[in-house]
Give the backbone structure.
Amino acid sequence: AATMFNEAPVRLQMRARRKDGGAAEVELSIGMVHGIDGRLTHWVLAFADRSEIARMQEELRVLRSIAAAP
């Protein structure tokens, strides 16, 4: 392959705003791509909307606390 990832991508989660002004939980992944000679050729950035997963995790937390109540 002409290029390869030499280091693991950095991942972080943050809150962002959608076009409609609503909040979104997003995960960003940023990685460096190096050429065969080892020089950095470019960066790659990918993001995913994690809002639904965050909502389900909160719902699960609430349900577990209800189930644990006497």
